[in-house]
Specification:
Elements: E1 4-6, H1 20-29, E2 32-37, H2 46-56, E3 59-70, E4 73-80, H3 87-113, H4 119-127, H5 134-143, H6 150-158, H7 173-182, E5 186-189, H8 199-211, E6 216-221, H9 229-238, E7 242-246
Parallel strand pairs: 1-2, 2-3, 5-6, 6-7
Antiparallel strand pairs: 3-4, 4-5
This protein binds adenosine monophosphate (AMP) and manganese (II) ion (3 copies).
Residues 10, 15, 40, 250 line the site of one manganese (II) ion.
């Protein structure tokens, strides 16, 4: 039997609920042998994850999930097997940290204009030392009674095309791919089904992604429709992209997700983890 692999997970360093140590322990409990920690725009959880991985006898694949913008669409690019200490990665996280801080202030201003003052301050407190993101705003909106649930917060104020969906701070696709390549990593398109793009638009994106140095695409991830996996495999083959797979696990509270859990890959594909496992 092949080892259990999860190449997409989050910790408290970004919008996950577990410390890196807790995440690694959970992964070990699920029988995961190879785990990539891929927090949004930060490598801050990787050192603790590495220590825990050694203790639990699993292999850590250092990663990051970088935010970028392409033709007005907010896109996530995973950097797998990066060197977090490489100057290019240090530049990446410094740039993104500032982008997130500035964006958070603007999200707060937008919400204040909609007669919801003080959300920025609460979101900052909730984020603590984590890189601040929209999920922290969603929790603040729930706590302050402006919405009934985090889902509701995204549907009304934070999700695509809503007031708090501000993407202008993100660097270009070329920039994020360059950071990953320079840091020795593999740039992988995260969750291609989550951008509300038609197949035609996705193909246009992949052309630009490959031209800029992109090397992989997540074929299977928590939440993807198993019926689409075959088409995603075909597309990856067509564009010469390696296949990746991961849960995008954030929190045990999201009980429909689990570390190491995603639909089985289908079709023919070239695994991105070949050579690592
Ligand atoms: P950010 O990186 O700050 O733009 O926030 C994006 C994150 O918000 C994603 O990685 C998800 O964890 C979360 N998210 C996005 N859309 C939704 C949604 N509709 N409901 C709940 N969480 C969401
Ligand atoms: Mn997230
Ligand atoms: Mn993502
Ligand atoms: Mn993710």
């Amino acid at each position: 039997m092949s080892p259990k692999i999860d190449l997409h997970t989050h910790t408290l360093a970004s919008d996950g609920a577990l410390t890196p140590g807790q995440l690694v322990e959970r992964a070990a409990g699920q029988g995961v042998a190879y785990l990539a920690v891929t927090d949004h725009d930060t490598c801050a959880g990787l050192a603790e994850a590495e220590t825990a991985a050694a203790a639990f006898g699993i292999t850590l694949i250092p990663g990051i999930e970088l935010s970028t913008i392409w033709k007005g669409v907010g896109i996530h690019v995973l950097g797998l097997m990066i060197d977090p200490e490489h100057p290019a990665m240090l530049e990446a996280v410094a740039f993104q940290s500032r982008a997130r801080a500035e964006r958070a202030v603007q999200i707060g201003e937008k919400l204040a204009k909609l007669k919801m003052p003080g959300v920025y301050e609460r979101a900052r407190q909730i984020a603590g030392r984590a890189e601040i993101g929209r999920p922290h705003f969603a929790r603040a909106l729930v706590e302050m009674g402006y919405v009934d649930s985090e889902q509701d917060a995204f549907a009304r104020f934070l999700g695509a095309r809503k007031a708090g969906d501000i993407k202008t701070h993100w660097p270009t696709l070329e920039t994020v791919i360059r950071w990953v390549l320079d840091a020795g990593g593999v740039p992988v398109l995260a969750h291609p089904g989550k951008y509300d793009m038609t197949w035609t638009k996705l193909r246009a994106f992949l052309k630009d992604f490959v031209a800029a140095g992109g090397q992989g695409m997540e074929i299977s991830y928590g939440g993807e429709n198993p019926d689409r996996l075959l088409e995603l495999s075909r597309m990856a083959q067509k564009y010469g992209l390696k296949a990746s797979a991961g849960s995008d696990f954030h929190s045990p509270r999201m009980h429909w997700t689990e570390v190491g859990k995603y639909p089985p890959l289908r079709g023919e594909y070239q695994p991105v983890w070949q050579g690592w496992v």
